[in-house]
Amino acid sequence: MGTIFHIELYAPDDATASKAAEAAFARAEELEQIMSDYREDSELMRLAREGARAPLPASNDLYEVLAKSIRISELSRGAFDVTIGPLVALWREARTTGRFPDASDLAKAKALVDYKNIELDPTRRTVFLKRAGMKLDLGAIGKGYAADQMLAVLQSRGLRRAMVVAGGEVAIGAPPPGAVGWKVAIDTADVKARKAPCTLVLHDAALSTSGDSKQFVEINGKRYSHVVDPFTGVALEGVASTTVLARDATTTDALGTALSILPVADGIRLAESLPGVAVYMVRQAENGWKRYSSRGFPESCLGRN
To answer: CATH top-level class for 160-301?
Structure first.
């Protein structure tokens, strides 16, 4: 999935810890085989090749991720969209070549992006792509889902005091012994301007930070993020980060992207409409950093303007 998975856990002995961790990593590998768009033999890539011919039966994991994706797409009115694959491919190339994608290529790719062209049949558990050439990209939800599933494996083995980190996605179980929660440092866009990174203490929750500190490209003096706006077909400009808190990492992962794309006020409104969800946004402006938060985000991080 293009990132490093990291587990911290408390167990009664080394053997229990090792076996549980091995099972959790095996679960991540299983999901990689299902959801990767880098592997031609993955279930996702088979769907891209054959899903426009006839409805294809989907594994439980792929079906659940797509159902959740469509739900987040509906809530965000398309700001989050897993059919964005053709556009993501163009911007991956742009990050390699340093050249802005060709306008005609962008137009062709954008014409294939619309989550409403995914048809799920809940009875048969099938997926149908209504347009040939569609390509799904689970990069903004798959890591969060994998982190949730890995934590579930650990918990099924009785190891509830655990935390799984998948890049910017964190799935958090019960707190460590003698502590109120796990300390999680947030890599916000303004981290260099702060004396220290913002740190939260969390348990039985999830957190995701979507930003461009590591994946971006500069073209003609402008900085473009790896996050692509499905409405325009263009990668987001400038320096920014969006941190989302919720009950599960599948939700925080997807919302992290959606709320990065939506206007700040709309993003906060959406977060506040969802039970257990809170967001903290950092945006770079001409006169310095702008910071915004929804109700419910921990006060410890709120360096207000």
So the answer is: alpha beta
